[in-house]
Write a structure and sequence with these properties.
Layout (H helix, E strand, L loop, with lengths): L16 E7 L21 H6 L9 H20 L3 E3 L10 E2 L4 E2 L8 H4 E4 L2 E4 L15 H10 L4 E4 L14 H4 L8 H9 L17 E4 L2 E5 L6 H10 L5 E5 L14 E5 L7 E5 L7 H9 L2 E5 L25 E4 L2 E5 L3 H9 L3 E5 L15 E7 L13
Parallel strand pairs: 1-2, 6-7, 9-10, 12-13, 15-16
Antiparallel strand pairs: 1-17, 3-4, 5-6, 8-9, 11-12, 14-15
The structure holds delta-amino valeric acid (DAV).
Delta-amino valeric acid binds next to loops.
Length: 392
């Protein structure tokens, strides 16, 4: 699986020239089980009336058509000279049990981004935030051992596994806040601005996809899938090497994974401003906007998602903003979903070359092109792109 070229675990940014990457696989994928941190929503009013959220394995033909698009991504990357690694799927259709809880089945290994992150020469296994994903590090262990043997400078870190006991989740979250029983707009607004999500702060819990890298700085979203305790764990773990910033997006009712909200594409250089794609429905706080702008970054709102991709597939649990879930090959080249034509135009205007690939069949497995990859090696360094501190 690994090519002969020596692999160096190294990724400080989202945009350094990509050398080695993991692309997920849909084999054996299941529906995510309902549990305190997850309530399934069927995106079709008629089916929703007739059917409860399903359990168990997805249909083989649904898995096969997702695998075709994932395999195609792997081929496109290989042709670009990128070394592509693939996970080793396990049987996800197995009940899992700990001393404290059990769920009917696991999920899949389509989205390594959610579970694993490379920061510099470290790879961190996230705790995950949902029971059905507790063991999702397992399909990546073969890759981890191969990297461990190939690069003697690699550091392997695993964040402390949370219990995922019921008291880690805000009881009643779904009925009080996130449902049609919501009492009033006022209550919703208040909860949003209190940043009260389903995870409470009793234990460290995060998904790796809530993190985005910009050299010496990383930005972590406080969300449904990452609590403040986890951001503090990252801050202490990376102290002296990386500055860890917390971002909050008060207009996002259910924030989960930062890569559909804030996507850094290229850094500021003396002759041009840096570019970060932003989500027009999920603006940054003013203080954060100022921080990016003061440091030479331009914040560029993406266009509305394509009407071909939205409404989302019936069992897709991500938002329409998968439209902006793209993968950078280098500072000038990005891989984007083929139907997102308005986004292609914007990116080309900004000077990027766009490589378009079909990916809609992967959406219901947890994400789009960025979600289903995990960069191991990029040509980049811990450069400091944020010399101007936060204004008080
Ligand atoms: O906006 O629904 C989805 C990201 C999935 N990994 C969103 C984020």
């Amino acid at each position: 699986m690994l090519c002969n070229r020596a692999i160096k675990v190294n990724a400080w940014t989202q945009w350094g020239k990509l050398k080695t990457v993991v692309v997920g696989r849909a084999d054996s994928a299941c529906f995510q089980p309902e549990e305190p941190a997850f309530k399934g929503k069927i995106n079709n009013k008629i089916i929703e009336k007739e059917l409860d959220w399903p359990l168990g394995r997805k249909k083989q033909r649904v898995i096969d058509r997702a695998n075709n698009q994932l395999d195609n991504l792997a081929i496109v990357l290989t042709r670009l000279g990128v070394n592509v690694l693939r996970p080793s799927p396990i049987d996800f259709n197995r009940e899992i049990k700990t001393p404290l809880w059990q769920v009917n089945n696991m999920f899949c290994c389509v989205c390594p981004r959610d579970v694993m992150i490379t920061i510099g020469n470290s790879i961190i296994e996230a705790t995950m935030s949902k029971r059905g994903r507790f063991f999702e590090y397992l399909p990546y262990r073969d890759i981890m051992y191969k990297l461990w043997d190939a690069d003697h400078y690699m550091k392997w870190k695993a964040a402390p596994k949370p219990s995922m006991n019921s008291n880690m989740y805000w009881e009643g979250y779904w009925s009080k806040f996130n449902s049609f029983n919501i009492k009033s707009e006022d209550e919703q607004h208040k909860l949003l601005h209190d940043y009260k999500y389903v995870l409470n702060e009793s234990e460290i819990a995060f998904d790796a996809a809530d993190i985005t890298r910009c050299g010496k700085d990383i930005f972590v979203q406080h969300s449904m899938t990452t609590n403040l305790r986890a951001i503090e764990w990252l801050r202490r773990e990376l102290d002296g090497l990386i500055r860890v910033h917390t971002l909050k997006f008060p207009y996002d009712r259910e924030p989960s994974h930062i890569d559909c909200t804030l996507v850094p594409l290229r850094p500021p250089r003396s002759e041009q401003r840096g570019v970060i794609l932003t989500n027009p429905e999920r603006p940054l706080l003013d203080k954060d906007k100022k921080f990016f702008k003061d440091n030479g970054w331009e914040l560029v709102d993406v266009p509305m998602p394509s009407k071909i991709n939205y409404p989302m597939p019936t069992f897709c649990q991500s938002s329409k903003w998968l439209s902006m879930n793209l993968l950078s090959i280098d500072e000038n080249t990005v891989i984007v979903e083929e139907n997102e034509k308005d986004l292609h135009v914007l990116l080309e205007k900004l000077g990027f070359e766009t490589i378009k690939i079909p990916f809609r069949n992967v959406f219901e497995f947890g994400g789009s092109i960025h979600c289903s990859t995990w960069d191991i090696e990029r040509e980049d360094s811990s450069e400091d792109f944020f010399r101007t501190p936060y204004a008080l």
